[in-house]
């Protein structure tokens, strides 16, 4: 599925697993959005990503931000309308590995 078809991408970064669970719960209850990923970034940072129409994603992210801030766990949040990124890139992306050769070498 291409994100061009979904309308918007919402991302909430939290500090800690508990805060990310709160974010997922609140987003699912606040609006009609689809969870596409929960990723542990490192240093206790967890990123929760959802897709849906712009109004639903905005409502979900704002609700999650307020709920997670109340427990002291919000790091950052954003909503991006019609992002040109395939969902698979966000869901399946692993750590970026440096290239083994330089451009032009074989």
From TrEMBL:
Cellular localization per UniProt: Bacterial microcompartment
Primary subcellular site in the record, as a coarse category: other
Keyword annotations: Bacterial microcompartment
Gene3D superfamilies attached to this UniProt entry: 3.30.70.1710
SUPFAM superfamilies: CcmK-like
Lineage: superkingdom: Bacteria
Keyword Glycosyltransferase: no
Residue ranges annotated for the BMC domain, each copy included: 8-92
InterPro entries: Bact_microcomp_CS, BMC_dom, BMC_shell, CcmK-like_sf, CcmK/CsoS1_BMC
This protein's GO CC annotations: bacterial microcompartment
Family: Belongs to the bacterial microcompartments protein family. CsoS1 subfamily.
Name of protein: BMC domain-containing protein
Originating species: Micromonospora yangpuensis
């Amino acid at each position: 599925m291409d994100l061009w078809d979904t309308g918007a991408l919402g991302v909430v970064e939290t500090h800690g697993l508990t805060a990310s669970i709160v974010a997922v719960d609140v987003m699912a209850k606040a609006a009609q959005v689809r969870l596409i990923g929960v990723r542990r970034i490192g240093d206790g940072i967890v990123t929760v990503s959802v897709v849906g129409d712009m109004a639903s994603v905005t409502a979900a992210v704002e609700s999650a931000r307020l709920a997670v801030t109340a427990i002291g766990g919000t790091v950052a949040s954003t909503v991006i309308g019609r992002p040109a990124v395939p969902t698979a890139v966000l869901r399946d992306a692993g750590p970026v590995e440096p290239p083994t050769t330089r451009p032009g070498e074989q």
